[in-house]
Amino acid sequence: xxxxxxxxxxxxxxxxxxxxxxxxxxxxxxxxxxxxxxxxxxxxxxxxxxxxxxxxxxxxxxxxxxxxxxxxxxxxxxxxxxxxxxxxxxxxxxxxxxxxxxxxxxxxxxxxxxxxxxxxxxxxxxxxxxxxxxxxxxxxxxxxxxxxx
Length: 149
What we know:
single chain; Aminopeptidase; 7-stranded mixed beta sheet; 5 helices; 7 strands; globular
């Protein structure tokens, strides 16, 4: 049984949000960025997703999720690699993200810890940044990261 990686489509929105919420992540404005989301599909069911919010030369990598039953098989890597390839094609020069406990995973792709002060003005347009700016207690348990492309 194969797992297919493909661009998300409008019919995937509820499934993407369900994957995100199941991991206790916020599904901020998923519909607004659906054209820069990718999904993993197995037998007609979504088993993974990842998205980008692109703001000119800056982007936020968000919502990298795989279902428990496919973890440890390289599918998260596949999602991140696709997002990074697409970001480069779109002219993105820097990619940011927030993570609770997956910093070692993202470091494998060249992401390095940074602070919210390190986010350039374009990247500060993302909803996650705007929400976190007003909630330092949440920022205290997250790791912000950045990668140059």
